[in-house]
Inverse folding.
């Protein structure tokens, strides 16, 4: 029997970590906010690397020249979204295009953000494993009476993801589905958009 990591690599799933925003509501690059012994962004990267994913891609944009030098060099790719001002859709397209180019046989893509501090590898693995077992088009996180990211998308939805424009994120496609498989993530609605959010955290 193959080790879980080897099984997933065989199925070729990649994680795309969206971290290109300007943090306009916060007033500074929230990617670099201290969280425990690290930063919000590096915490997210660490959890992604600890997951079963065979590829991790970090999409930077605003403040990339400040953020990139601070990130510890590990086994993941950093790409710069030059169109970050368009909105999150541009980062989804940028990350997915890179993933498909790097892994032509990719089977699924998992999208996550760096401002949900309670994301962990266990949650990511549940999403990946459930999608792998069921073959469902989308397996998303369930919180606060809704569904959202982190979420994993089967490759048959890649064309739809690549058509997203403006500030329409992956949730637009999630909401278009008649049936959504979810993994409970009770703390998923806690994200860092403002200084007050960070103070509460």
């Amino acid at each position: 029997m193959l080790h879980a990591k080897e099984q997933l690599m065989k199925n070729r799933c990649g994680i795309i970590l969206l971290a290109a925003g300007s943090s306009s509501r916060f007033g500074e690059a929230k990617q670099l906010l201290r969280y425990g012994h690290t930063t919000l962004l590096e915490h997210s990267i660490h959890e992604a690397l600890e997951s079963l994913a065979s590829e991790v891609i970090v999409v930077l944009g605003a403040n990339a020249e400040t953020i990139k030098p601070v990130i510890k060099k590990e086994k993941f790719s950093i790409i710069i979204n030059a169109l970050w001002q368009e909105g999150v859709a541009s980062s989804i397209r940028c990350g997915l295009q890179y993933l498909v180019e790097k892994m032509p046989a990719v089977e699924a893509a998992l999208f996550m953000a760096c401002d949900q501090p309670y994301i962990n590898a266990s949650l990511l693995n549940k999403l990946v494993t459930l999608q792998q077992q069921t073959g469902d088009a989308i397996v998303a996180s369930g919180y606060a009476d809704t569904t959202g990211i982190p979420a994993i998308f089967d490759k048959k939805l890649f064309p739809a993801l690549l058509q997203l424009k403006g500030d329409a994120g992956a949730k637009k496609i999630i909401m278009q589905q008649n049936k959504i498989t979810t993994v409970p993530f009770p703390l998923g609605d806690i994200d860092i958009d403002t200084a007050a959010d960070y103070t509460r955290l």
Summary: The chain has eight helices and nine strands. The two ends are 42 Å apart (CA to CA).
